């Protein structure tokens, strides 16, 4: 049995029903026996999605301490303890534990995608066994079971349909197709065929909207299409974010610097006559000081602040490093349905013999008007009203969907909903916009019969009995002859309905449908379809009621008009796409819709470039990985794609060096969301599977929120660069001051406690306040930074070394100048202490801009201003407060000494900034 199933995996939809039943060993009349079902359960296992065993809280917590920088800090903790620096050791260890705790809180719930997938499985199923129908747990189903499904239920497994009655299924969560599909059992389809076109199959986890069906289970559990998605999620490897890679690189650089410092200090000291053990300990102490122990925690806190900022802009970040990854994004792959569009079918245009009418408004709220142009600037003329009203009235009468008003009017437009098929709902809403009450209209005329829609007939008709009162609003029906009259109203594919029409209603009466009219109608339908609309025709026939009730096929219809339906783009999306494109970020649309629909939407929102490619799922299947890596950056639209295709696209872009953000809301998006550098799910309409697989969740499902999040991500990374520059330049200065003094045979400029206090005062609050800096004006006009860019790129190393050299020079100048004047060593050390700290606090403002210290207003960042003032107050405190002065070995300074120290520290930065401003103006003037 298992071999048989494996051999036919891709062909169930292409086989006759009898052949399917034989291959599965199934009986459509009696079902499986209980004993056979038990044996098959042993063979195939339970019908459930396998959840990957995730790490528990302890594993997640331990993972926080495997980062390279954390390992470096733990080594520094051990060395500090061995050197007897217990205070340093305890402080560093506390920082490491705090950093791990913050990361643990953010990431504990990161791996729940497979659990959410299992919640999409149907809890109960109606199955035929031992000749009788039973309700059982859906996970007990096996291949070969005969099952029944009805409206409101989820499909319990992958099923080959045997019988259907107006069976309509919403597969948007699986395929991305925005329009519900009508399934039909007797069809045998040609292979190969995309998932969304397998109309004789129903798939696990999809939702039945209408009708009933019976079928035979062909796949269960992990063999289903939903199971394939789960397998893709399990096989998708996690990957480091750009920030983690850069911080690991920084940690390695710092380790080599520390080792080099230890060697240099030891060699210089021994050459100067100092004992080797003493110089080795001094070298190790300086090496530990070279590592900015607060850096990982400041990075974590700044990322957490970024999370808070992004949340205020209506997005939730599920993984801290993802905040910075947003700023590195070079390519956005966006789903169409629900992301670029509203996921609410809307009647956008209508055509009658009086011309085309365009309808305003979107969604299900019945507010809008009718216009003679697509720009909605010219209202329709009164002369077109009769044909338009008849089109909308007959369209609504051919529908079964109902418009549901909000129970609470304060909820606004989003609270309006449709009970029934969304396509029918769009026609009903348009009727309400014209002033017709579809429900009242359908109640006015008793319903006398239905010819249901199916994918072969491609039309649906409803028969009504006409009453004595043949008018409703502006609608007037004709009557005459003997016996009770009736009317048949039909809607369906335009080519099918038009072929059955022999007359046309032109507003003044019924006229013969001439070849010229047929050609004009067909031309208009094709134009509407080319613009991305789903086109339906509406027609009717009046006759004796008994004649209409006995019709087996619609014929001799009177053509009334066409309706064009779209899932409209969100109005704010085009501007959001322009914004990210100005930031040199490419956008591609990936959808399960047909190529023409996808192309039309992409053109409307501004995604499709003149030179951009449009590829289908079939095109992708013909490409190997090398060809796809080459084509992916050139492609703007992907249509009729499968979950596997989406995953391949993301992987191809990443292989080409892109940092990829993938947006989506359906279950089918989950593997690609996980594989992308940054997965973005929709918070309102997204499935739980998509949310659990994503790094970022948009609370308002708004594409513009992605632009805001990218802006915050870029700002955060630039702020990280700022405090890396600030901290390392400060540490370089402290080390160089001590190193040069030892090499020159000078006394020690700073005591160990002074160094500890400097690190406490300057490494803490000012560095953290740098992380609160706002975005520089032109940041979103710059291209994304290259994925391989080092954190030291764009001259950061030079800035660190040059500013460190300036701070070193002014500190040593202040120290040596005081020594030459004959003051005690403690007073010279105090002057060096003040000069070094003030220079570092001035340097924090220089670090705010890539240009100069004068480029940004110092009052823009008030937390930074207050932290600098507070840090300076702490410096003054350990000098003027006698108990602290005794502990730190400082002495009081005169007013003149304070002015000298401040002037020496400030002047070089102001001179450097002034030179840079003059040079920039000179270069601009020459340009």
Using the alpha-carbon principal axes, give the shape: elongated
* Derived structural class: alpha+beta
| Unreliable sequence segments | 1-10, 109-118, 470-474
Largest sheet: 10 strands, mixed
What is the CA-CA span between the terminal residues?
78 Å
Oligomer: single chain
Helix-residue proportion = 40-55%
The value of Rg in angstroms is: 36 Å
Share of β-strand residues: 15-25%
Query: What is the strand tally?
Result: 29
The DSSP helix count reads 34
Average residue pLDDT: 81
Explain the overall architecture.
It is built from 34 helices and 29 strands. Helix content is 48%, strand content 17%. It is α+β, with helices and mostly antiparallel strands.
Spell out the key features of this protein:
single chain; 927 residues; alpha+beta; 10-stranded mixed beta sheet; 8-stranded mixed beta sheet; 34 helices; 29 strands; 48% helix; 17% strand; elongated
